[in-house]
Specification:
Layout: E1 5-10, E2 13-18, H1 29-40, E3 47-52, E4 57-59, H2 64-67, H3 76-86, E5 90-95, E6 98-100, H4 104-109, E7 112-115, E8 120-122, H5 125-128, H6 136-144, H7 146-153, E9 159-160, H8 161-167, E10 172-173, H9 179-192, H10 195-204
Parallel strand pairs: 2-3, 3-5, 4-6, 5-7, 6-8, 7-10
Antiparallel strand pairs: 1-2, 8-9
Helix pairs in contact: 1-3, 6-7
C-alpha cells in the first residue's frame, strides 16, 4: 500500500508527493504530521519538489471528515508551511492540478510554483466561515498584492492557471507530461552549486 505522503531522495533532491488521489489528495492530520516531520529533517536537501498524485488535483485542502472535527483550524497547517518557508534550499511546488483551501499554505511557502494548464486556484474561507492560516494572507499579498489577495480570500475568486500566472500567483505553466521534468530542470543549478552560496543568495532575496 502506498503511503499518503510519498518521499523520494536522490542526491540532494527531495521529492514529496501527496499520494491520496482517490480523495483529491485532501490532507489528514496524520499527513500533515508526516509532512512536518519530513520537512524538519530536510535541512541537508539542496532542493525540494512538492507535488501531488493524479492528473486533476494537487490538493483539495483538508479532508472533509476531519475538517468537521477541527482539522481546518489546526496549527499543523502553519507548522508545515512554516517548515517549508524556513528551508535554506530551493523549494518548488509542482502543481499537478487544482490547488484549494488550506493546501495553499504549502504552495505559497515555496520559492517557485509551477502549474499544469488545467489547474484552478481557490481558497473559499469566507464562504466556509474559517480564517485562512495565519501566514497565508501575507505570503499571498507579497506575491500578488492586497487587492488580488482580497479578490481570492474575500471575493472567493476561482482563478484559471492563466489568470494565476498573470497575477503572479504561479511562476510558470508547464505541460502535464513534463511538469516534474521542468521542476527538476529548475532545481539542477541548486543541486550542482555550492550549498552555502545558494543559501546566502536565498537570504539576500
Amino acid at each position: 500500500m502506498n503511503a499518503p505522503v510519498d518521499v523520494a531522495r536522490d542526491d540532494g533532491l527531495l521529492t514529496i508527493r501527496l499520494n491520496r488521489p482517490d480523495k483529491a489528495n485532501s490532507l489528514t492530520a496524520a499527513m500533515l504530521e508526516d509532512l512536518a516531520r519530513v520537512l524538519d529533517g530536510a535541512g541537508d536537501a539542496r532542493a525540494v519538489i512538492l507535488t501531488g498524485a493524479g492528473d486533476k488535483v494537487f490538493s483539495a485542502g483538508a479532508d472533509l471528515e476531519e475538517a468537521r472535527t477541527g482539522l481546518a483550524t489546526s496549527p499543523l497547517w502553519e507548522q508545515v508551511s512554516g517548515a517549508l518557508a524556513a528551508l535554506p534550499c530551493l523549494t518548488i511546488a509542482a502543481l499537478n492540478g487544482t490547488l484549494a483551501g488550506g493546501a495553499f499554505g504549502m504552495a505559497l511557502a515555496c520559492d517557485l510554483r509551477l502549474s499544469v494548464p488545467s489547474a484552478s486556484f481557490f481558497y473559499p474561507v469566507a464562504k466556509l466561515g474559517f480564517l485562512p492560516q495565519p501566514s497565508d494572507p501575507g505570503r499571498m499579498r507579497a506575491l500578488i498584492g492586497p487587492a488580488r489577495t482580497k479578490l481570492i480570500l474575500l471575493g472567493g475568486a476561482r482563478l484559471t492557471a492563466d489568470e494565476a500566472l498573470q497575477f503572479g500567483l504561479i511562476d510558470r505553466i508547464c505541460a502535464r507530461d513534463t511538469l516534474l521534468e521542468d521542476a527538476r530542470a529548475l532545481a539542477a543549478p541548486a543541486l550542482e552549486g555550492d550549498s552555502e552560496n545558494l543559501q546566502a543568495i536565498k537570504r539576500m532575496i
